[in-house]
Structure to design on (380 residues):
């Protein structure tokens, strides 16, 4: 049996799996209850784990496949009466026959006794599994979550991400060994998968290479609206990471919420990605140095965006999400700039007035008509 499952998962792997768990939990809740009987409600819910492995490590710590099964069971135990009537199917694939055999046993012991979610197992190479399942993902009124926890970097290319992004209601989570792409960028092996200029890659600060790689995937999506967001992981001197993708703002918000739970400084890494003097609870001597670089950049970009666009709350909500800030993190930054007199809010004359002081920077408000417009103070 390969070494990965015959030893305990390392800390970086456990962090990655906790990020998977947090998002899977939110995704299940959204698609089993969120839409109710609305026209957006999916007719079929599919979760694909295309590198499923055998399910757990030497110490019994669950991998992605068993996390999926466990979270669905926990959800059904709490909210079975509220659960969507749409059928849920689980698709587990791995090329290793022994992994699949072990995974079947673990799933059968763990799965929901109500048998409301049906698992299917395949033993295919990744490309074969993707071709096999892509017609299911492309069906209309189908919600898909696709997890691709590959070893290394070879399988999930920009072309794969673009194909999945073209499927409606399809979120993706994939792992990539970013430091290996960085280190061997000029080799034919890398270049046939990632057409990255080696000089551009070498010019990126090493701690931020996964962030850069996420931008590369984003640039290769063309004009289609599909949001990507990274989470960087460091083990020893190597940097790996997760990239999340969705076409829906709510999916992006839930993913960012999970990231900020793991990293309360930048919402983006298990290490000091920007070299902040104040990190991991430590404080710098000068108060100004205690502001994380990512937060400082966000505020400067926010001011420029508001000055240029005078956005309403829906536009500002999307801006904050695409900069890696959601929920309370975005509101905190905006409120601070309002209190400092940098940004002002005003009602939109053509719509019914909102609540006094409300910013409406959340998904429920995004779905409705805009309530507030933001502009830079005349004194700035």
């Amino acid at each position: 049996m390969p070494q990965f499952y015959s030893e305990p998962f390392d800390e970086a792997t456990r962090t990655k799996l906790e990020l998977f768990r947090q998002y899977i939990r939110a995704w299940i809740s959204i698609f089993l209850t969120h839409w109710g009987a609305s026209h957006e409600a999916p007719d079929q819910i599919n979760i694909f784990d295309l590198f499923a492995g055998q399910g757990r490590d030497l110490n019994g710590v669950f991998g992605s496949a068993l996390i999926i099964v466990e979270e669905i069971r926990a959800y059904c135990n709490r909210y079975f009466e509220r659960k969507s009537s749409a059928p849920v199917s689980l698709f587990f694939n791995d090329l290793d026959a022994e992994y699949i055999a072990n995974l079947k046993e673990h799933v059968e012991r763990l799965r929901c006794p109500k048998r409301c979610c049906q698992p299917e197992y395949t033993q295919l190479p990744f490309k074969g599994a993707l071709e096999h399942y892509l017609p299911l993902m492309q069906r209309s009124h189908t919600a898909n979550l696709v997890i691709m926890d590959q070893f290394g970097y070879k399988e999930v290319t920009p072309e794969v991400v673009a194909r999945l992004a073209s499927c409606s209601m399809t979120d993706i989570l994939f792992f990539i060994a970013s430091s290996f792409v960085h280190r061997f960028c000029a080799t034919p092996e890398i270049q046939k998968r990632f057409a990255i200029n080696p000089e551009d890659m070498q010019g990126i600060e090493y701690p931020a290479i996964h962030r850069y790689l996420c931008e590369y995937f984003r640039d290769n999506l063309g004009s289609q609206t599909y949001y990507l967001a990274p989470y960087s992981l460091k083990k020893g001197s190597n940097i790996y990471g997760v990239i999340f993708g969705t076409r829906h703002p709510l999916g992006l918000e839930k993913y960012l919420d999970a990231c900020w739970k793991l990293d309360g400084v930048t919402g983006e890494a298990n290490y000091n990605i920007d070299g902040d003097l104040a990190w991991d609870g430590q404080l710098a001597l000068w108060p100004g140095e205690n502001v994380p670089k990512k937060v400082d950049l966000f505020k400067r970009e926010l001011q420029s965006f508001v000055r240029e666009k005078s956005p309403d709350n829906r536009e500002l909500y999307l801006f904050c999400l695409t900069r890696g800030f959601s929920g309370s993190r975005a509101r905190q930054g905006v409120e601070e700039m309002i209190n400092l007199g940098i940004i002002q809010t005003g009602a939109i004359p053509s719509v019914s007035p909102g609540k006094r002081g409300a910013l409406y920077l959340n998904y429920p408000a995004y779905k409705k008509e805009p309530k507030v417009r933001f502009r830079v103070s005349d004194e700035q």
In short: The radius of gyration is 22 Å.
